[in-house]
Amino acid sequence: MQAAYENPTTDIYCRDTRYVSKTLGYRPHLHYGIELAFLWSGHTHVTVDSMEYDVFGGDAVISFPNQIHTFRTIEREQYILLKINPDLFPELTYVLTSTIPSSNVIRNAAKDEEMVSLIQKISDVYYGNMSYRESILRGYLLAFLGILLPKIDLVDVQSADYHVVGAIMHYCSKNFNQELSLAVLEKDLHLSRYYISHIMNSKLKIGFNDYVNSLRVSAACTLLEKEALNVTEISARVGFNTLRTFNRAFIKQMGCTPSEYRQKKKQNQ
What is the mean pLDDT of each run of 10 residues along the chain (269 residues)? Predict the structure, then answer.
């Protein structure tokens, strides 16, 4: 199965099963962000890049930017899930963008009372309504990462290919709503279009066009949920040249048309 690229619309995202009833199970995906799941109970099977783990209540699992990861629920989980833009923490830029964990699981993380206290505070502030909310969240998250990172064995990413993947992803995430092609990337990133295509297929297991379309569809989902724009306007705003191409790409990724997706979200709300 191809890995879908997620284009987060916020710097900080939190999902807590105290407030949202949803399992961790999710298809292969990647993004320019840190993703951490802190399990209180349950059992999930996790794959990060080529490594597989069974994660149980009391454990935590983390993926770094550009790591392909997937969750398969074995026993329904109770958890807090965080997705964080690493650019929020310039003091940790090198660690978060130039290293990866040798193991993505932190066993018995729930035994660390300080970490437990911080992640619960992060969730409470995220779901709360207070002054200076974003600043408070950043402070708690920085403290949380300061405790978490020393518990992880980090290794430098030596592969030049890995950094190229990051450059491609970053460029496309900033420009997906513009005209994008391998020729454009070749010119702006000073890389051969054939090398870019090879990297996309070998590292991300996805073709360039499918990757760009996944970015556009992800952005379209947000607009369909939050904006009153019609489908044609949304199609143009996220970078599709024709409504037909938009519909075809949307159905391929989401399994329904844009209009059906919007209707489902309204019914859920």
Answer: 63 94 86 92 90 95 88 96 92 86 94 96 94 94 96 77 75 89 89 85 82 90 89 94 93 91 82
CA atoms of 246 and 238, how far apart (whole Å): 9
Angstrom CA distances, 185 to 162, 164, 190, 240, 249, stand at 17, 12, 7, 18, 21
User: Both tokens of residue 117?
Assistant: 């206290």
For residue 141, CA distances in Å to 34, 144, 228 come to 11, 5, 33
Residues paired with residue 71 on neighbouring β-strands, in sequence order: 26, 46
The pair phi, psi for residue 261, each rounded to 5°, is -60, -45
- Contact indicator for 126, 137 with CB cutoff of 8 Å: yes
pLDDT for 160 equals 55
Q: What is the pLDDT of residue 6?
A: 66
Q: Enter the tokens of residue 135.
A: 């600043």
Question: For the residues of 58-78, what is the DSSP string, one character each?
Answer: T-EEEE-TT--EEEEEEEEEE
Q: How many other CB atoms sit within 10 Å of the CB of residue 175?
A: 16
pLDDT of residue 61: 97
Domains and CATH numbers, the chain: 4-156 (2.60.120.280), 162-268 (1.10.10.60)
CB of 48 closer than 8 Å to CB of 67: yes
Q: In whole angstroms, how far apart are CA 95 and each of 91, 152, 256?
A: 9, 11, 39
- Residues in the chain, overall count: 269
Please name which of 136, 71, 148 lies closest in space to residue 109, comparing C-alpha atoms: 148
pTM for this predicted structure: 0.66
